[in-house]
Design a protein that fits this description.
Elements: E1 3-7, E2 10-12, E3 18-25, E4 28-39, E5 46-52, E6 57-59, E7 67-72, E8 77-82, E9 91-101, E10 106-111, E11 115-119
Parallel strand pairs: 2-11
Antiparallel strand pairs: 1-3, 3-8, 4-5, 4-9, 5-6, 7-8, 9-10, 9-11
Length: 121
């Protein structure tokens, strides 16, 4: 089965940087889009960055200029480089996939388990 596993979270001081990774396993025929979402404590989840299959990117207004999403096709890994982190960035970050798996089915709700990012002095 297709699985997404996030890693790279941790405790960072304001202004610091982190790189999150989303490793995809299982046979994926077509990655239509990948995205990063986050859920701050006690709040609703929100989109952070989206990477289309064609390589175009979109970012939430609050992270533009600070976060960068990219992918390594050979490694089947999607990254979220986060710089100039702020306390408001504290959240559980989730990787999302819009994928067609080996069975030919396309699903937009592949999710990882999340990785905690805490920005604090």
């Amino acid at each position: 089965q297709v699985q997404l596993v996030e890693s790279g979270g941790g405790l960072v001081q304001p202004g610091g940087s982190l790189r999150l990774s989303c490793a995809l396993s299982g046979r994926i025929l077509t990655p239509h889009a990948m995205g990063w979402y986050r859920q701050p404590p006690g709040k609703r989840g929100e989109p952070v960055a989206i990477l289309s299959g064609g390589g175009t990117t979109e970012y939430g207004d609050s992270v533009k200029g600070r976060f960068t999403v990219s992918r390594d096709g050979a490694k089947n890994t999607v990254y979220l480089q986060m710089s100039n982190l702020k306390p408001e960035d504290t959240a559980v970050y989730y990787c999302n996939g819009d994928l067609t798996a080996a069975d030919g089915r396309r699903r937009r709700d592949y999710w990882g388990q999340g990785t905690q990012v805490t920005v604090s002095s």
